[in-house]
Amino acid sequence: MGFFHISKRFRAPDLQAKVILILIAVIFPVSIFLGLAQSRVMEPVLYDEIRQVGLSFAQNLSAQIEAQRLLLKPNASQLIEDKIQRMVYAHPGIIRVDVISKRPGTGALYYLASNIEEQESLIPPESALKDQVTAELEKEDEIPVWNIYYPLKVGSERAMIHVLVSLRFLSGIQSTVLKINIIAAILSTILLILVLSFLLKRAIENEKQLKVAQESNAVLSGRLQETQQALIHTEKLAVMGQLTASFAHEIGTPLNAISGHMQLLQMSLEKLMVGEAWKSVSDRLGIITGQLKKIENIVKGFLQTTKKPIAQQKSLVPVRELVDSVFALVQPTLQYHHVSYYPGFRAEKGIVEVVPLEIEQVILNLVNNAVDSMKERGAGSSVKNELRVRTYNDSSQKYVIVEIQDSGMGISEVNLKQIFKPFFTTKSAGEGHGLGLSICQQILNSYGGEVLVDSRVGQGTRVRMQIPVAG
What we know:
Blueprint: H1 2-68, H2 76-88, E1 94-102, E2 109-114, E3 134-140, E4 143-154, E5 157-166, H3 168-204, H4 207-272, H5 275-304, E6 315-318, H6 319-336, E7 340-345, E8 351-354, H7 356-375, E9 386-393, E10 399-406, H8 413-416, H9 436-446, E11 450-456, E12 460-468
Parallel strand pairs: 7-9
Antiparallel strand pairs: 1-2, 1-5, 3-4, 4-5, 6-8, 9-10, 10-12, 11-12
Helix pairs in contact: 1-3, 3-4, 4-5, 6-7, 7-9
């Protein structure tokens, strides 16, 4: 009997090892083969889709130039370049757009307009002049690109539209598909190994070993759930980025109209009003105009997220100036909600090197959160709505701290641990998306600073922005 048990214990690991080897030998090659096959099947379809995007772009640009007869206008180059720049914003895959024409008299080719400044100083190749619509698949720096040529005619003037569409992201898609298949193979193998190990050990192990296996499965299940939640958050952020870019593009036109009418209104009121009355109205109009400009800059920043990002200009600015700018904007809101504002500026070193608009965005978000917290108390509360803002330096004099303290409802200890997580919010549906504090923290972290929050339920909240002093 003893020999039987010993031989059984030796055979069980051999069987388990064989099952593991079979699973690895079958699942991995099949998954990798399916990933490669899927990429090959998808590739021609994606190539054709991108070609159609380039052709549609060239056709749309040609129709607009012909409809407005831009080739016949004296400043045709500038007008066409402006139109190209506006259209390229909505097409991140298009990396270059040129309009090629012949110089009068010499017949030499030249770039009439382009979204690349250096391109206009070059001479187009003779092959760029086509008699019909052409789409050529080529490679630039080992990256596949579509060269789209679209003939253009306005009256007696002829030109050629050249659109260069990059297929760079296709390699990323193919790599992602392959990685997903490999990860799926790993997870499938691990899961099958665990299940089969559980079944094999069930016959030769006692209840204690079975409990250990169950605990191991619970740990793996928790990790898998965390991974799924992380993937959901990533997908939400990606979708929000696309929606934000579309939203920013759509509101650009009405913003320009509002700005234009504001200038006309200011000119009209300046003629009708004089003295202190005009000064008060002028100050209000100046604030509105300044905020419209900030919105335009934000829209431009959103639009840049769909193409290669560019660095924003930093400048040396006093923190007090940024705080004053924000509170000049929110003063009507504070008055409407009967909030008393108590400033206190004691920072000896208060100059920071930042993008002013970003820091103003952080301060405005924190002030709005404070006002929302005080609104929750309701009109019948005996606690006064007070907002205290002060600036000071830390003990090392390396940071300037902007402290914003309110007399609102405060934050519970449970919620305080989650306030910086994306999409976490305690507000009702439609009142907040849970991104404000997460974005504030990201902005300050990019400068080497941070946001610190201290709060008690029923005792208000104190938020400290920590920004490195310039130099």
